[in-house]
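[User]
If only I could read backbone structure tokens as easily as an amino acid sequence. I have put the entry right below:
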Amino acid sequence: MHDARVLIDMGDEAVRRLARRGYTLDLSSLESLQSRRNQSIRTADELRADSKRVAQEVQKAAKVGGDISALKESARKIKEQIREVEAEQEQIQKELRELLLSIPNMPLDAAPDGDSEEFAVEVRRVGTAPAFAFEPRDHVDLGETMGILDFGRATKLSGPRFSIARGVGAALERALATLFLDLHTRRHGYVEHAVPFLVTRKTMTGTGQLPKFEEDLFATGVADRELFLIPTAEVPLTNLYADEIIPPAELPLALTAFTPCFRSEAGSYGRDTRGILRQHQFSKVEMVRICAAEESQAEQEKMVAHAEACLKELDLAYRVMTLAAGDMGFSAQLTYDIEVWLPSQNTYREISSVSDCGTFQARRAGIRTRDERGKTVPVATLNGSGLPIGRTLAAVLEQHQQQDGSVALPQALVPYLGFRRIQADGTPSEA
């Protein structure tokens, strides 16, 4: 969430930057609300001062036996006015907050212009996309033929956009998650967390999923209690420090968690309906970093390297892209997408987004630290996938498939699985 005073002071510059991501900032409405808020605060303060003065006059008049009826009536009217002004102030504050909650983060100038993936700028390519002497199969054909993925029974249980991994497929998912967690905790310095998968409306608002994206969430409730299924572990990990002041010496914080993620994928129907690329439920290892505001861009580069390390361990070809300003998530000021090569589609597809949110989420969630003068200031928050299990499994199957229908697994997975190859019939093999 933005500071209204900052947006107003920036003026046309704020309008320009937000326009780059397709948002039209109504500066006059914002200025009017802020002015009305400030005026109501001044009026309330003046009335409270009047109330205090009249109360003192009542006390003085009562001591000398004077008539205090007129003073008491004046005190009553002032208190009534205070209640009216406070109610007005509360309504104005609500309107201002609702407006500020609807305004996306301002993109950094490093984000290229544009409003779709077509305008993303390639930063680098790593690895060589595999060349096959045969027609490569997609992960759906490979997984179903092997018997390690089952989409039909998942649909029977829950409807479309769900999947089941079985046997070696389930073991592979577990191995990928453990590999990623080991990399992040042992090599990259993250602290692993086991977090709730159901969170409150306030928690969802803190990281920017609410109020704007409620249709994208799965909600549940018992009696009068409302909870939301998390779309990513970014939500509980970041909000762990909501309404707290983090000592500067403890920054940066590096947090990771392996959780299921639940997304309605509203508005995406018809896209990636085949396989495990876009599902209502999937598992992911998430990375979150919390740091001083001036360190956020350096921390983002670290996080990109940490996500890349996972792909390198698996011998997967990929590329890094800088997303266009109009194609970034609501809370991001700069986002790098990492895209893995999928042979069946003959293209790169997103497997990780690493976003620098600046102080945007911290303002919403009340996460602060202290500057060199001891003043409380918002921290910066960053998040990134490190990595999603389903999309990684799809890339492993597709990039490492063999002509005989087997899959030669990356060496990094062997210690977690105990075998080197998945045979065409879905059985493990050490050969």
